[in-house]
Structure formats: structure tokens, C-alpha cells
Amino acid sequence: MKRSSFERYKLKKTLEVLEKKKGFHTELVSLYIPPDRPISDVTNYLKQEYGTASNIKSKSTRKNVMDAIQKILALLKNIPRPPPTGLAVFCGAIPTNGQGTEKMELTTIVPPEPINTYKYHCNNKFFLDPLKGMLVEKDTYGIIVLDRSEADFAILKGNHLEILKKITSGAPGKHRAGGQSARRFERLIEQAGHEFFKRSGDYANEFFLEIPDLKGILIGGPGPSKNKFAESSYFDYRLKNAILGIVDLSYTGSSGIDELIDKSRDILQNVRYSEEKTLVQKFLTMLVKDDTLVAYGEKEVRQALDQGAVDTLLLSEDLEIFYVTVSCPNCNYSEELTIKKDQLPSLEQEIQNRNCPSCDSSLLSIKTVKPIIDEFGELAEQTGANVEIISSETEEGQQLKQAFGGIAALLRYSIEG
Ligand code: ZN
């Protein structure tokens, strides 16, 4: 399953918020429900935990744990079965301002990947490791470490390394046997090298050509063999085109593979950067060619989203703009505003001192504050558009943020007029 950068962004932000929450004691409940676990099992389990919790000595901890379990039980009543990837639930009394100010909070997350293990966890922090693991890039890379005497093949998928095969060249040693002519010795070496490269190339084809989402190939090794091999025609041109880097190493074998991954961090990060560059460049090219097929800025893009005309939405990752709704509970008056993060305190102040323009009551208040990335990202997903979160690490990313307000879209069709 391919995950969008928007999904990753949303999960990352939610986890950042949950990570900061701390209870006074071991009273925050984390619950991981795998997709195949019947809700009735979970409910029975929680009822038992509820019974156990009644023995907790500290009165406030006891109350908070029991309240949290009850709140989760109430939630599960409305869920007939877990979603296809399972469900993670976080519930607990979070202090807002010192002891005695705890507020019961509940967060549910439908994870982007299936939950494998059922887990009930009670601590003074939420248990987030299984979800954090899902943030890791799951892109797949082919790895070849090679010198004149051996070659090692591996696949790197996210943080998971799978070592596939080691072959040796059987090349003759550096010193020729007595009586052997120098020419004959050289020919033997050449012959062995040729066969070794050929076998290496065949394995590379066998291992890597079949991988559907292969992001690229990394080649490394001590000495010049890796370069000769990388430039050779011993393996498929598609793999050759996918070579991301040729890296000089001190080792071969599994130490060499580790070294190669370590030295390739920047290369791997650059793969995402170059995707981001390409996306923004596509927008810029279209802007010049036919500007009715692009939109940028908050107002224009929102209009395109409302019409379902957006094909790909580009959002700057550090876009600190919020979408605020202000409403009056007395007469149902409401207004919507877009503000920068640092304008929020002064807006709060202003709303407090202002009366409702419709009924003149003093009840006007801020109802919701939502990051514009979430607001637009969700709108886009509802209409089946791709959402790409673009970092500011590249020149193109900077340009998107500064020249286009951090919001741009490639359209499916022209919406002029
Ligand atoms: Zn009003």
C-alpha cells in the first residue's frame, strides 16, 4: 500500500501532541486493537481491568483509571468491529494546570498500517511506539556491495534490512603460480572478473527487477570494482538507470552493507527531496504554459477544491496558517477567518471584547482552530486529489512557500470563468 505524504504528516502531528501529554501517575491508558480482534473480547478484557483498577490504593489514580476505562467502553459500544487496520485508543486524565485540574481526554487513531499485536498499557505517558514505527519510510532499495573477490546483495525496506546472497569470485590470488606466464595469469584474472561480474549482474536482475516499488539501487565497495560494475552492461538497463549512488566503503560483507546504508542517508533523503522538486517544477511549468490548469493561494485553491477540480495539491510543510471559525451560540451567527499562528492571541482578545454583529450578545467565541494543511488536505482527499506535503529544504519548496503562499494545485481541468 502506498501512503501519501499527507497521511504521514497527519499521523506525525497527532503523535507529537500525544507524546507531550503526561499524567500524574500511571493512569493514562493506551489500547491497540488488531483488525481481527472481536470488540466483545476487548470489552470483556477492559471490564476485567476495571475490576483490577478498583484495588488501586491512590484514590485519584483509581478514579482516573476507572474513568478512562469506562470512557473507552462507551466508545466501543458504538463500534461493531475494528476498522481494516485496527484501532488505537488513548485515554486518560491530563492535567491542564497542576494537580486537581485533570481533564479526561480521548483520542482514537485508525492507523495507516495494520496493528499486529493486541496491547493494553497503563502508564503516566501514552504508549506510542507501534504507531511511531509506522512513520518510518517503507520505500525499498536494492543494495549491492562488491569488490574483486565477493559481492553481497540485500534489500532495504524502511528500516528493515534483508540480506539476500553472498557470492565469491574465485579470482586467483595476486601472485601467480611458479612457471605461469604473466600474460596467461592476466588473462585468467580477466576471465574470472568477467564471469564474476556476469554472475553478479544476473543476481541483481533476479533480486531487484521484480520489486514493484523499487526506489533505487545503491552500490558500494572498497576499490574500483564497484565503479567498473556500475558502468558495465552486466545487468538490466532499468536497474542501471535506478542507481542512486556509488559509495566508497572500507568493508565488504554485512559490515559493508551497514556502512553503505549509513553513508547513504543523505542520498535516501534526497530521493524524497527530488520528488518534491519535480512536483513544484511541474506546477511552475504549467503556470507558464497554461495557467488555467493551475491554482495557487488560499482563495483560488479552495475554490478549485470545492469544485473537485484539483488533481494534485501541494502544501508547504511549515505553513503556519490556521482556519478559524467564530460563532455566536445565541443566534447561530458564524464567520470564518484565516490567520497566521502568531495572530491567534490577539484574535482571542478581540473576540472577547466584541459583541455579536447579528444579535449584539457578548457570547461570540472561537469555535474551531484548524491548521490550513489539515483543512485543505481533508477537502482534497474527499475529492480524490493527491496531497503532497512539501518541505522547505529545496529551492522549489522555498519558492512554493514564499511566492505562492505555500498552497498550490495542479488541476484536472480548467476552471476559468
Ligand atoms: Zn449572535
SSE pattern, N- to C-terminal: HEHHEEEHEEEHEHHEHHEHEEEHEHEHE
CATH fold name of the largest domain: Translation, Eukaryotic Peptide Chain Release Factor Subunit 1, Chain A
What is the assigned CATH homologous superfamily of the largest domain? eRF1 domain 1
Which CATH C-level class of the largest domain is it? Alpha Beta
Sequence stretches where pLDDT stays below 50 over 5 or more residues: none
- Please work out how many helical segments DSSP would assign: 13
Basic shape: globular
- The tally of domains stands at 3
- The pLDDT mean sits at 90
Gap from first CA to last CA: 39 Å
Give me the Rg, rounded: 29 Å
The appropriate CATH architecture of the largest domain is 2-Layer Sandwich
Which structural class fits the helix and strand makeup? alpha+beta
Q: Largest sheet, described in full?
A: 5 strands, mixed
Q: Give the total of beta strands.
A: 16
As a percent range, the share of strand residues is 25-35%
How much helix is in the residues?
Answer: 40-55%
Cofactors, ions, other ligands? zinc ion
Trace the largest sheet across and list its strands. Answer: 7-6-5-8-9
